[in-house]
Predict the structure.
Amino acid sequence: MQTVTLQFDDVYYQELINQVGKDNLAEFFQKISEPYLWLKQKSNSSDEELSQAHQQILSERLANDKKYK
């Protein structure tokens, strides 16, 4: 699994907490990372560091893409 460290200004972090909710931060960051991970998969990059949850999401999206081509 790949680890990313993010640094926020306190004001922006507090605004994010107000909009998303502290309990939903992990899900929020997972959702915003999906497009990057999807593009990585489409470019045939190695997915060794992807979590099982992300691998499942990407597999489903790739399957859906093939349906509509």
Observations:
- The chain has one domain: 10-67.
- DSSP finds three helices and no strands in the chain.
